[in-house]
């Protein structure tokens, strides 16, 4: 099973709100990723967790805070976001078994910051 | 640094016609290449991948791609497209970084299939 689920599907938040995005998979954990995708653009890498440890942070502002509580879950905590942070946020996972660089993507969370 | 170029931002084609979406990558010792498709308001779905072995790779939905090392290309082809193939297509190369791998994406090609 290579399914990756993301909740919520849609999120609208104000600039003073605190919210979290959730990503879950049951493939075992080799690596998990957060991407940000603006309209008509390719995904931009934000964070990489490798074996549950943060291994890559692509100079993302501190208003985005990732967390990997266990081998199945990946969260992205949001605080004091700006309207330009509105985008599709995608989670991806590399299963414990299989090609070590083959990423499976979730459906994404569509975030709107007012 | 590795990079991926998708020269065509949009490719219009009539239903049942063949299509080729072009992808070129910057050269490296080891190359791992992927094609992903993204339907409107959805995540990315893996179409096919080249990791090693045969240079002709077959994927889902009747797509195939050929890895050409001398031309540093990985073009995606389908002999007969359907309306349902209308979507955004991304070519990507996997690069090693610290203890992980990251995908470098091309800018994407929108395939527009017309009846």
Query: How big is the Rg of chain A?
Result: 13 Å
Secondary-structure-based class of chain B equals: mainly beta
Portion in strands of chain B: over 45%
What is the helix fraction of residues of chain B, given as a range?
Answer: under 10%
Furnish the topology, listing elements before pairings.
The complex is a heterodimer of chains A (114) and B (115).
Chain A: E1 4-7, E2 10-13, E3 18-25, E4 31-37, E5 44-50, E6 53-57, E7 64-67, E8 73-79, E9 87-94, E10 104-105, E11 109-113
Parallel strand pairs in A: 2-11
Antiparallel strand pairs in A: 1-3, 3-8, 4-5, 4-9, 5-6, 7-8, 9-10, 9-11
Chain B: E1 4-5, E2 10-14, E3 19-21, E4 24-25, E5 32-38, E6 44-50, E7 56-58, E8 64-68, E9 73-78, E10 87-97, E11 100-105, E12 109-114
Parallel strand pairs in B: 2-12
Antiparallel strand pairs in B: 1-4, 3-9, 5-6, 5-10, 7-8, 8-9, 10-11, 10-12
Task: Quickly list its features.
heterodimer, A: 114 residues, mainly beta, seven-stranded mixed β-sheet, four-stranded antiparallel β-sheet, 11 strands, globular, B: 115 residues, 12 strands
Descriptive report:
By secondary structure, chain A is mostly beta strands. Chain A has no helices and 11 strands. Chain A is globular and about 40 Å long. Chain A starts with a strand and ends with a strand. The A-B interface holds A 4, 6, 31, 33, 40-43, 45, 48, 50-51, 55-56, 90, 92, 94, 99-108, 110 and B 32, 34, 36, 41-46, 49, 51, 90, 94, 97-103, 105-108.
Summarize the structure.
The complex is a heterodimer of chains A (about 110) and B (about 120). Chain A has about 110 residues and is mainly β.
């Amino acid at each position: 099973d290579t399914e990756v689920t993301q909740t919520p599907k849609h999120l609208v938040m104000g600039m003073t709100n605190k919210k979290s995005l959730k990503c879950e998979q049951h493939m075992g954990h080799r690596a998990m990723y957060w991407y940000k995708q603006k309209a008509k653009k390719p995904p931009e890498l934000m964070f990489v967790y490798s074996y549950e440890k943060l291994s890559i942070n692509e100079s993302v502002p501190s208003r985005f805070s990732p967390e990997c509580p266990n081998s199945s879950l990946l969260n992205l905590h949001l605080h004091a976001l700006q309207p330009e942070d509105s985008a599709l946020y995608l989670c991806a996972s590399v299963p414990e078994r299989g090609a070590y660089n083959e990423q499976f993507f979730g459906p994404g969370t569509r975030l709107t910051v007012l | 640094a590795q990079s991926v170029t998708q020269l065509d931002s949009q490719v219009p084609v009539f239903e049942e016609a063949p299509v080729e979406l072009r992808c070129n990558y910057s050269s490296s010792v080891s190359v791992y290449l992927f094609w992903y498709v993204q339907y409107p308001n959805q995540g990315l779905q893996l179409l096919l991948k080249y990791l090693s072995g045969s240079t002709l790779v077959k994927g889902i939905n009747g797509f195939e791609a050929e890895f050409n090392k001398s031309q540093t290309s990985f073009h995606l082809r389908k002999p007969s497209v359907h309306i349902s193939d209308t979507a955004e297509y991304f070519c990507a190369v996997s690069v090693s970084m610290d203890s992980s791998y990251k995908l470098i994406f091309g800018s994407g090609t929108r395939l527009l299939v017309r009846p």
